[in-house]
């Protein structure tokens, strides 16, 4: 049976948008209940427990907080949840402009309003209305300037000292699990968040999550189990659930293109290379020029290098301390662009391992002029 040109395999293609809130949020019961119990006091007009959600990319941190915020808005008119994406909103002024808008129900009249005026107007309003504010700062580690990050946290956690009786809870979300090391003395001494960890998903967990996504996005039986398993393999290998969601959508389109009623392994294979490219481009986009230069050096070399050898070569191109170099290696590994492993030799040495075909990575890098 073929698919006619006006037919589709997609019941709802929006399901494959990355910011789509999934109907089923799987394998995160522990995290959800820990978060919920930290926020619960707010429903009783008490101050919620400050929380840090930590874990690698695509482990469901944003989704958990958004789902809970949605639920809170449905059941409570005491709590005002404010979701702040620090990738877009990344100064103290912008964060508080966003809170102002949510608390007052209208946007700040102009950007010229002095910060203290905005700040006290928020605090006084929630106190008068007897509300509890919960602010989620998503992708907090994206704010590279420690001073800015600490200023934002500081303003939120000292609010009850400024206006007696004010209740504010903070949820910080970060892929950098060591973010607390960046807190200054003041923030560190009064901000003792409860940590909720989001570990990477196993193969089986990825299978369940993608299976559920497909159930809501495709018509029944559109996706063959073999194709799904192939996508799960690739997702597990990439270590990023977003890659799998993207592959589901692209494979669905590919099957439609050849007018098939079923998505098969060959559709996944057909879109896989482009999938890697998009995925790599995203990774490369997250790097600055020095980091890209190091990635390039790694993928240009034909043999496996120890971190020491690599450092010596890199230093000839760019003057950099070993500590900084090491930080970049960790970032590249965290973004799943490389692997590192210990090898037994004279003592213990660490080698850098390419994760992808060199051409794919170099092509992605060449799209940038630097
Ligand atoms: N447990 C889950 N069940 C269903 N879908 C999930 C689950 N975890 C993640 N997802 C889906 O995977 C994608 C990435 O999840 P999310 O944005 O919540 O990750 P994140 O941890 O915030 O990642 P990042 O640190 O990169 O922002 C989303 O499309 C989300 O719907
Ligand atoms: Mg997120």
Automatic annotation (TrEMBL):
Residues binding ATP: 59-63, 201, 213
Ranges where the Cdc6 C-terminal domain occurs: 294-365
UniProt KW ATP-binding keyword: yes
GO biological process, one term: DNA replication
GO molecular function: ATP binding
Alphabetical UniProt keywords: ATP-binding, DNA replication, Nucleotide-binding
Domain of life: Archaea
InterPro entries: Cdc6_C, Cdc6_lid, ORC1/CDC6, Orc1/Cdc6_arc, P-loop_NTPase, WH_DNA-bd_sf
Protein's job: Involved in regulation of DNA replication.
Similarity comment: Belongs to the CDC6/cdc18 family.
Protein name: ORC1-type DNA replication protein
UniProt source species: Archaeoglobus fulgidus DSM 8774
């Amino acid at each position: 049976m073929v698919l006619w040109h006006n037919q589709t395999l997609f019941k709802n293609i929006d399901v494959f948008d990355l910011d789509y809130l999934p109907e089923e949020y799987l394998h995160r019961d522990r995290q959800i209940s820990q978060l919920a119990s930290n926020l619960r006091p707010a429903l009783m007009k008490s101050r919620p427990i400050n929380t840090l959600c930590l874990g690698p990319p695509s482990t469901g941190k944003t989704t958990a907080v958004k789902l809970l915020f949605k639920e809170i808005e449905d059941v409570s008119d005491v709590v005002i949840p404010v979701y702040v994406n620090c990738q877009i909103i990344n100064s103290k002024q912008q964060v508080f402009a966003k809170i102002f808008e949510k608390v007052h129900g209208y946007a700040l009249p102009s950007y010229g309003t002095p910060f203290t005026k905005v700040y006290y107007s928020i605090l006084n309003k929630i106190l008068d209305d007897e509300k509890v504010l919960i602010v989620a700062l998503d992708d907090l580690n994206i704010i590279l300037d420690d001073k800015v990050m600490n200023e934002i946290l500081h303003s939120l956690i000292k609010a009850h000292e400024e206006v007696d009786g004010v209740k504010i809870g903070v949820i910080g979300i970060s892929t950098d699990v060591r973010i607390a090391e960046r807190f200054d003395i003041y923030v560190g001494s009064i901000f003792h968040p409860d940590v909720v960890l989001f570990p990477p998903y196993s193969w089986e967990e990825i299978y369940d999550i993608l299976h559920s996504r497909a159930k809501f996005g495709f018509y029944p039986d559109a996706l063959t189990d073999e194709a799904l398993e192939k996508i799960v393999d690739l997702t597990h290998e990439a270590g990023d659930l977003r890659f799998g969601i993207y592959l589901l959508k692209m494979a669905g389109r590919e099957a439609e293109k050849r007018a098939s009623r079923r998505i098969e392994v060959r559709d996944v294979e057909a879109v896989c290379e482009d999938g890697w490219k998009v995925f790599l481009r995203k990774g490369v986009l997250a790097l600055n020029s020095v980091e890209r230069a190091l990635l390039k050096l790694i993928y240009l070399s034909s043999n496996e290098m120890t971190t020491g050898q690599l450092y010596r070569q890199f230093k000839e191109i760019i003057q950099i301390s070993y500590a900084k170099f090491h930080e970049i290696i960790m970032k590249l590994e965290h973004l799943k662009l490389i692997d590192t492993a210990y090898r037994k030799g004279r003592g213990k040495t660490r080698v850098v391992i390419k994760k992808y075909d060199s051409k794919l990575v170099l092509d992605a890098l060449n799209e940038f002029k630097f």
